[in-house]
User: Fold this.
Amino acid sequence: YTRLMGEDEAGTLQRLTTLREGVLGPLIAEHAGRIVKLMGDGLLVVFASIVDAVGCAIAWQTAVGGQETKRPEGSRLIFRIGVNLGDVLVEGDDIYGDGVNIAARLEALAEPGGICLSGDAYRQVRGKIEANFEDLGEREVKNVAEPLRVYRIAAQRSPSDTPPSTTKPLPLPDKPS
Assistant:
């Protein structure tokens, strides 16, 4: 996103806005979700049901992947999604707390075009969502006392929809960079 904004700020913002309004917004609404906050190319979305949240994440990656494969590889908008089940604190129209912070850490662990779930989220959707889950084990993440059990989920797509991953994601640094 940063590179695309550097190359064409107005065009990238227009593409992202069109994608949010035409694809993502309707998918979120269809799965009974609510956009809490927009942050550049990121969104914070809350759902009443974890099954709806994961269903939306799969539909999101499938829809965006299908649409973006029409573009040259270097100009695609590709999202990472982190899904967590946890308590949040509501203040006005915003939400805070471990539930949000852990979802953000999971998002950072996801590969481009991928979805990572916490162990709590996985336990609730196991057997209710038709997808392939891969246990990534326990992961230490920044500013979280206990290691997190992390699962990766891959929607059923054709291999050409997802760019091949040639490297493992790097661990998060202890300090901001």
